[in-house]
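@channel sequence for tomorrow's demo:
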Amino acid sequence: MKINAMRTLLILASICFLAACGSGGSTSIEGPVLSLSEVRALVIDQFFVNGGLDDEYASEGEFSLYLRDAATGQDVACTSAENGMEELAIPAIYYGGLSVPFESVDGEHPESLARFQLLFVEQDSQGCPEPIDEDEDDIAGISAELTFDELLEQPIWATNGRAVTVLRAQSSDAVTVRSMAPSLARGFFLDKLFFENGSEGRQANRYYLFVDRIENGSSTYESQVSDDDMAAIQYGELIYAALGFTVPGFDAADAGFDDTAVRVSLYVQRDSGPALVGQTDVATIGELIGEKALFTNGKGYVTFRSVMPTPFSASVVRLEELIDLIATDLSYTLTPEAAPTMELQVTDVEGNYAIACAGANQGLGGVDAPGTYAGLTAGLATVTGQQELFGWDTVLIRLVNRTDGLTCPAPMTATPEILGQSAGLTSAGLGAGSYTFANEAGSVTLALDAE
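structure tokens (generated this afternoon):
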């Protein structure tokens, strides 16, 4: 029996060696062609699916990420609930600090890839490693085609702008999660939360966040972040980012707001009652805003969103700023197709998805033929499903004729006819002013809405 057992162990060891068992972290990912062994050495570092989707998973979902060979249309790898995706079930929460591995999709598929796509899937079928079930599963978003240089350690957005992920090699250090774009309004808003809680942190639990006002070393007022907000915080050892949770009871208009001393405490619910996970040192609100506050036990931190003093003064373009703009003048020279659906859009720098838009319902009616139009009051609206995360480094302004039968604020579902497009614009180049379309195709003038 001992001899047979030893022989079995030797055989298993040989199989693991040949199959590179457990060696995903040491596999070198070089490109430009990605082999299946390299795919299995990829991990999800950051993950987000927007909560603006009108579907059954509006409050919670069973998500997976599939890697597709763009040349053949076959899906070769995916991420499973058992390997970490079950912890990423809340839409509209940006998760970071992850290490969710890929595994091979069942069935035959290419052994190497040169062009890739990522599919964000909400699964009602058996899920990964099974292939996507087109009848039961919902596609939350699909990325554009990617080359190897675009695959690692940078945000990969779905073309509808509703989902994003960052991938890295298992052996690489985690990618730093950006702070949320600065707030336009002064206040006390939670941006990030991270904590370690031992074995408790690997199970779904209920957590509470309290902020105490401290005077002469004692608490004189206790504020609690709402239970509805904190319901999204269920596991430890994840970075919860772009939260935007309001800390109630602290009014930025109050005298001495910045100098108010506070202490932040995180608790976990146990059978015996709430137990402290970690708390910060006492600090003033002014010292906390825009900064990371470590827990005194070294087991986590909180970060509070910074504030920008004036519109378009941040280093990134904010959605909140864009929807304060109205188009007052428009000119264009190209003739659209018959019966056009004209729309002004602000898009990401690649033009993959619209962030804000203005169509007939927003005041951009009667501009169906080339010409010059003055005295407009077309206000930009948030595209359905868009959510403020970290802002955009660069955006485009473009005039399009929609070809998908939909109107603003519905997101694009088909490539539009582009009648004019600006150069890439940073926050410093945006605001009230005139923007020229490339190739002398026209221009648009924007103004801040006076209301």
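heads up for whoever presents: The two ends are 84 Å apart (CA to CA).
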